Amino acid sequence: MTPAPNPKDAMDATTDFSVKELSARAALAEHSVLRLFGGRALSIPGTLFGRVQHPETRARRKRAAEWHYWWQAHLMDALVDAGFRALTSGDTDAAAAHLRRGRAVLRGIQVRNYGTYPNHFYDDMAWLVLALERLNRLALAVEGSGDAFVQDAASRLYRELDDACTDDLGGGAFWSKARDFKNTPATAPIALAFARAHRHETAISLLNWLHATLFDEQSGVYLDGLRITGGSVRAPETRLERAHYTYNQGPVLGGYLTLLDAGATDGLTVDPIEHIEQLVEGIDAHFSKDFTTATGDTLRVLTTHGNGDGGLFTGILVRYLAQVAAHPSIPAATRDKARALILATAELFWAGRREYDPDLPMNELGIDPNEIRGQAVALFSPSITQHISEVIKPGQPVDLSTQLQVWMTLEAAARVL
């Protein structure tokens, strides 16, 4: 295994990288995820499915029960990122291949979800709707027309998202069909999904509820949610869940930006540009930290949330910070701050990788495990400030979520440079 540089040796993210270099990094992350985690859903041809971990160490029963619907949605979204990256470089064949892979992920989700798309969690379905909308856009860009298969899946899921949005607790969206928790993880991506579908009034209502109910003025970021703990339908008792997570901020940014693009901001209770500025400042203050390299340079990087579901959280935030960094209506200082956070985070992730040759015959005598004969793959650390070798020893399982997170971040870095 070729040792990567320690994160402490990472260069200042303001270094003048080329788009070509950052795109190559994103391409390696893409190749690594597909090579190490990609497979077929229930061995059915024409499907693509992200295995939960590599190498697979779970018992068969747990493997059958635990497959993470929403991780698959973000796998699809990352493939769309790669497809648009290919189009930007003029490689239409590669873009078409990514479109095919995205469609295969949708078939994989359908197969693994017992032939249907809805599930118990409204936030899961919202993430898939967002990925499907972008997959349909990729189809338009590559083939000149939308994808009826993709559109039908999204239409079915939009009906589910409608059911999540009620007047209980004054508005917002339920997290699950248990209907006992209205939170940012569901309401924010659902608001963004409706904004993209030009259902602006619904999106505005959801964003207004979020701001009034779950925005924490003191920290400048959104809290987790409002849980129903008892009482009656007319007079429920609730508890405010005050946890802060990076990913909760991302789709809020996306929702306001989408409404700005549509010129559909009438009815919002906050000025969208001022609120985006405020939220980026909150993200910088609450979810970022300074990291000093061995050379004495300081990187301001986003924090991460470990393995499991948390392994996706910061990657989701980065996706929407990239939209802030590229949006002409946002003041330059805010765009620059978003861009700097993305590039620094991507640089430190890259510095903390481990590269190796997955085809090296390790059982042969005299094999140097650091040798790379064919195409290398990379594994990335779930902890932004630690090299992967400090966190996960060779042979220990790595979660798909953490690798998707880095792939998403590297794609964002290539877009905002």
Give descriptors for this structure:
three-stranded antiparallel sheet, four-stranded antiparallel sheet, 417 residues, alpha+beta, single chain, globular
Describe the model.
Strands 5, 6, 7 and 8 form a 4-stranded antiparallel sheet that branches. Strands 1-11-12 form a 3-stranded antiparallel sheet. 53% of the residues lie in helices and 12% in strands. With 417 residues, it is of the alpha+beta class. The longest helix is centred in the first third of the chain and has 22 residues, at 122-143. The protein is globular. The protein contains 14 helices and 13 strands.
Give the N-terminus to C-terminus distance in angstroms: 30 Å
Order of helices and strands: EHEEEHHHHHEHHEEEHHEEHHEEHEH
**Proportion of residues in helical segments:** 40-55%
Tell me which oligomeric state these chains represent: single chain
How does the major sheet shape up? 4 strands, antiparallel
Return the structural class.
Answer: alpha+beta
Low-confidence segments, ≥5 residues, pLDDT <50? 1-16
Record field, number of beta strands: 13
| Broad shape | globular
Q: Taking all residues together, what is the mean pLDDT?
A: 93
Number of helices: 14
Task: Report strand %.
Answer: 5-15%
Q: What is the alpha-carbon Rg in Å? A: 21 Å
What would a concise description of this structure say?
This protein has helices at 19-37, 60-65, 69-88, 92-112, 122-143, 148-164, 184-196, 200-214, 246-262, 272-287, 313-326, 332-351, 388-391, 400-416; strands spanning 2-3, 38-39, 49-50, 53-54, 181-183, 215-216, 221-231, 236-244, 288-292, 298-302, 354-356, 377-379, 398-399. The chain has 417 residues and is an alpha+beta fold. A hairpin with a 4-residue loop joins strand 6 and strand 7 (221-231).
